[in-house]
Amino acid sequence: MDIQFLLELMINGALTGLMYSLVALGIVLIYKSSGVPNLAQGAMVMIAAYLIWMFAHLMGVPIVFAILLAVVSMFLFGMVTERLLLRKMVGQPTIMVVMLTLGLESLLRGLGPGLLGASPKSLDLGLDMMPIIIGDVFINREYLVGGIIGGLMVAGALLFFRTRIGTKLRAVSDDHISSWSVGISVERAVAISWGLAGISAVAAGAMWGSVQGVDWTLTALLFPAVAVVILGGLDSIYGVFVAGLIVGILGSVIPGFVDPLVGGGTRDVVTSLIILLTIIFRPHGIFGREDIERV
Amino acid sequence: MKPFTRWLASVAGAAALGLGGAAQAEKEPIKFALLQDFTAVYTFVTNEYHQGQRDYLRFVNETGGVEGHMIETIVRDTANEPQRGLEAYNRARREGAVLVDFFSTPVSRAAVNRVLDDEVVMITALHGRGDASEGETFPFIFPMMATYWSQSTVLADYIDQHQGGLEGKRIALVHIDSPFGREPMPILKDLAEKKGFDLRAFAYPSPGTEQSATWSDVRRYRPDHVIIWGAGGGQQVSVREAIRNGIRQENILSVVWLAETDARNVGGNHLKGVKRFEAVGTGTDHAVIQDIMEHVIEPGHGQGSASNVGTTYYNIGVATMAVAVEAARLAMQEFGAPLTGEKLRDGFRMIENFDARGMMPPITITADDHQGGGYGRVSAWNGEAWEPLTDWYSAHQDIVWEEIEKDAAGFREGR
């Protein structure tokens, strides 16, 4: 076996996985507070990337400020989405709420390209395209930065849940009725979690938009992100980090060795198997709580 | 016009083209159905392509139409879904469309039997079935430009003629893992045997946003040349990964789907030297584009942003309609009005050495050959534009036609 090849696949896979974690984090943040698996997170990533592009290229704002403006915009977008759409669904069956997020995904997927043009847009974060080379191992610099940001976002989310607002969110995630009874505004907590998911979408949109350009295909990031949250546990931020690494590494190493033998196409199979096997053998994921309701 | 307004205008349904030529209003219009994917997979190309088509047809109408008949377009969004495409097709047919362009491989493949039964002409430029080049089996389907098979032979031939020959070389085909991505495989395999080079295919999963593992493997193969076979955002990822893995730009060759947008998105000057198959000339320095500028763009009647005029995909759109209008003109001259699908088919088959006044290779369509000769050329990105490196030519059409006939026979036999 070519050890250097294996090493390269593992490193780049781990970094890619952490970039998937950026998408998955938004799903977990919302699920933790409201019990809603947000299937619109991939589309939110796309909208965030379009916003950064719009601020930077159409309005001429420097890229750093464009990202900051997108953070504010997406936080507000998340809160408004919760207020206008999700709050009306209180008391409705979970499946209806899931369908609502699916409808939101479809709407956003058409809206971004419809408003700003469908051809792929360039999002240049100023990162050097050339890889870091160690021996015969090439490490993708963009993935390295994305992976670091993914790790930092997860760490930031963990720290946030230790703050006063974060503690309220944890209480809300534990029990809505008890939280209400002690004076916590559940609606506000859920809205904040949607806002935070919007911020997470900006980080994902910036990094993935830089790697692949900005167009509708960013919404396809939902699939690996769903694998990450199912494997890690729908309500676990630790899980986002660990499962991101596992999904990324397996999704890189297995196709790296198997694709040449079977003619390609195994990465999506690997991702699908991760989802299926986790649901069959450990439905609450590695770090998820066992009382989580299946959806 | 803002993109959203333009988009709405595009998908809003039937749209009459042009108010010009009111004097001939009593003549029955010719209806072309442009039922395309404005909102899903082909969005990287559809807007510019469709804009080129509409601007050209507007130009035709502004200058008297086809033998005095205006051309009306029926425009609907299929979202690349065969069901929606067929529904839109049925409506368009009832409304009198004699030509349909889905510009989507899945939708046009699903519509093959319908258009053959209904005797409606379907153009499939740069998409659809390669074997539809065989006119006897597919009498109403016209690829009318080089199929993917012909594109692969031109690219391989370019390496053979201009990059030190094919013999003993290692050629990597890095492709999206889809039927489109695998399309050139049988042709390149035949060529590898014939020319004595080593061919290895590397697939990456759709939509091609993440290809790092694939390219790690490509690098270890140490290819002399890499042919990339994808579309949309996946293409720029391929180019970036190739460069990142030490493959020199001049050794990267692409299927037709690599355009100005990709150059911008790859960033910097990284695309400089990368080559591609070219089906239609780019830029505004063509007589037909100049006419569109004068009669449509400058008076403010353009379908979209004027900055798109002359881009790769815009010009391809123009070329498709130039060929279709030429076919309609020949059919009307020969058979008179009203134009039917059958007459239009015969009009296509009368096209001889038509090159849209120098913008595209001269194509000749016959009852047997609906591809038009399989011509194209190789161009390279010079940092600002696509620069032709060769004249228009075709290569190894014997191998291409073996494949066409084999697959067409399969269709006839229901395989």
From TrEMBL, chain A:
<feature type="transmembrane region" description="Helical">
    <location>
        <begin position="143"/>
        <end position="161"/>
    </location>
</feature>
<dbReference type="InterPro" id="IPR052157">
    <property type="entry name" value="BCAA_transport_permease"/>
</dbReference>
<comment type="similarity">
    <text>Belongs to the binding-protein-dependent transport system permease family. LivHM subfamily.</text>
</comment>
<keyword id="KW-0813">Transport</keyword>
<keyword id="KW-0029">Amino-acid transport</keyword>
<keyword id="KW-0812">Transmembrane</keyword>
<feature type="transmembrane region" description="Helical">
    <location>
        <begin position="62"/>
        <end position="81"/>
    </location>
</feature>
<protein>
    <submittedName>
        <fullName>Branched-chain amino acid transport system permease protein</fullName>
    </submittedName>
</protein>
<dbReference type="GO" id="GO:0022857">
    <property type="term" value="F:transmembrane transporter activity"/>
</dbReference>
<keyword id="KW-1133">Transmembrane helix</keyword>
<feature type="transmembrane region" description="Helical">
    <location>
        <begin position="238"/>
        <end position="257"/>
    </location>
</feature>
<feature type="transmembrane region" description="Helical">
    <location>
        <begin position="93"/>
        <end position="112"/>
    </location>
</feature>
<dbReference type="InterPro" id="IPR001851">
    <property type="entry name" value="ABC_transp_permease"/>
</dbReference>
<dbReference type="Pfam" id="PF02653">
    <property type="entry name" value="BPD_transp_2"/>
</dbReference>
<keyword id="KW-1003">Cell membrane</keyword>
<dbReference type="GO" id="GO:0006865">
    <property type="term" value="P:amino acid transport"/>
</dbReference>
<feature type="transmembrane region" description="Helical">
    <location>
        <begin position="269"/>
        <end position="287"/>
    </location>
</feature>
<feature type="transmembrane region" description="Helical">
    <location>
        <begin position="214"/>
        <end position="231"/>
    </location>
</feature>
<feature type="transmembrane region" description="Helical">
    <location>
        <begin position="6"/>
        <end position="31"/>
    </location>
</feature>
<dbReference type="GO" id="GO:0005886">
    <property type="term" value="C:plasma membrane"/>
</dbReference>
<feature type="transmembrane region" description="Helical">
    <location>
        <begin position="189"/>
        <end position="208"/>
    </location>
</feature>
<keyword id="KW-0472">Membrane</keyword>
UniProtKB/TrEMBL annotation, chain B:
<protein>
    <submittedName>
        <fullName>Branched-chain amino acid transport system substrate-binding protein</fullName>
    </submittedName>
</protein>
<comment type="similarity">
    <text>Belongs to the leucine-binding protein family.</text>
</comment>
<dbReference type="Pfam" id="PF13458">
    <property type="entry name" value="Peripla_BP_6"/>
</dbReference>
<feature type="signal peptide">
    <location>
        <begin position="1"/>
        <end position="25"/>
    </location>
</feature>
<feature type="domain" description="Leucine-binding protein">
    <location>
        <begin position="29"/>
        <end position="382"/>
    </location>
</feature>
<keyword id="KW-0732">Signal</keyword>
<dbReference type="InterPro" id="IPR028081">
    <property type="entry name" value="Leu-bd"/>
</dbReference>
<dbReference type="InterPro" id="IPR028082">
    <property type="entry name" value="Peripla_BP_I"/>
</dbReference>
